Amino acid sequence: MRFARSGDDVHRCQQLRHRCFVEDAGGRDRNGGIETDKFDWLCDHIMVENRVGALVCSYRLMSIPSGAAIKASYSAQYYDLERLSHYPAPMLELGLFCVVPDVRDPDVLWIAWGMLVAIVDARSVGLLFACSSFVCTGAAIYGQAFDLLTQRHQAPDQWHPDVKAPQVVEFRKNAQAVTDREMLGHSAAMAQVPMLLTTFLAMGG
Q1: Residues 25, 12, 33, CA angle at the centre, nearest 5°?
Q2: Are residues 61 and 151 in the same domain?
């Protein structure tokens, strides 16, 4: 596990991202087989390699000194994060977490998250945040998952993101409370929740 140290390292991370987020999603080749944006050169890129040096996992991190700089984040393109603008401590935005699809070794994830924890501690990070995408744009199939997230995992009011995107999916404000018994029926829906979001919830998000 290490930081990317060169432009070639970053390029390898971009190739893995293209495989995971473009090719595996049925998209067409773009930018010569790399997935990149304007934030790449503002971020640290983290790499997990196997014993022969092949890249098996990567993600990127943007360090934000305090909420005053939150508008520079990737997430701020899509969400109104004004409520976080007064957050006093250092923040860290996690993005583009991906693993080679045919790698099934759980140690890869343990190593990846272990380094993230070490970085959070070393930089005295007070808040870790990220964007997470659901598959496809047909929101109806995720109704139960959204109900569960709405009722059990909303951010505190003082940090809650507000709407910024022109097209949004409204959470059902009158959804019935999810009981422990009903949780069993929601397990299938939660299985559709992106792994990054599931991990954040398991960490207390």
Answers
A1: 45
A2: no
Say what the pTM is. Answer: 0.88
Taking residues 39-63, what's their average pLDDT?
96
Q: What distance in Å separates the CA atoms of residue 81 and residue 151, rounded to the nearest whole number?
A: 21
User: 99 lies in which domain range?
Assistant: 2-130
The CATH number of the domain holding residue 49 is: 3.40.630.30
pLDDT digits (tens, 9 = 90+) for 151-200: 888 888 988 999 998 888 887 765 555 555 555 456 777 777 888 888 88
Give 95-121 pLDDT, tens digit per residue.
999 999 888 888 999 999 999 999 999
Scored b (16 or more CB within 10 A) or e, 132-147 reads: eebeeeeeeebebbbb
Domain boundary among 98, 130, 162: 130
